[in-house]
Amino acid sequence: MWSIYPTQVQAIIDAMAPDYSEVQVASDILLKAQDADWGPIQHDGELHDRATYRYFWELVQKAKVTGLKLPEEVLKRFFS
């Protein structure tokens, strides 16, 4: 059985939270993908499709759960 002391909780959350720059890139890609009806898009010279959208969606969800501030447009489109 595992036990976590209450003062360790925030450190664990912080360690699991994605970097904000990753969240910004993920947000940009997901917004652009939604605008393209989830078809393939190009972002910063790289091709993205549904496989990468799943990765970026998980990253944005993890950011929300760990309390990182998400761009307003992402909150409006995906979490309202």
Key features of this structure:
single chain, 80 residues, mainly alpha
Give the helix proportion (percent range). Answer: 55-70%
What is the domain tally? 1
Number of strands: 2
Overall geometry: elongated
| pLDDT < 50 stretches | none
Q: Report the sheet with the most strands, covering strand number, pairing sense and barrel closure.
A: 2 strands, antiparallel
**Mean of the pLDDT scores?**
94
Strand content: 5-15%
SSE order? HHEEHH
For the largest beta sheet, what order do the strands appear in spatially? Answer: 1-2
The secondary-structure class comes to mainly alpha
Describe, in plain words, how this protein is organized in 3D.
- The radius of gyration is 15 Å and the shape is elongated.
- The model has no long low-confidence stretch (mean pLDDT 94).
- The protein has one domain.
- Helix content is 59%, strand content 8%.
- The longest helix is centred in the middle third of the chain and has 16 residues, at 20-35.
- The relative contact order is 0.18.
- With 80 residues, it is mainly α.
- Strands 1-2 form a two-stranded antiparallel ribbon.
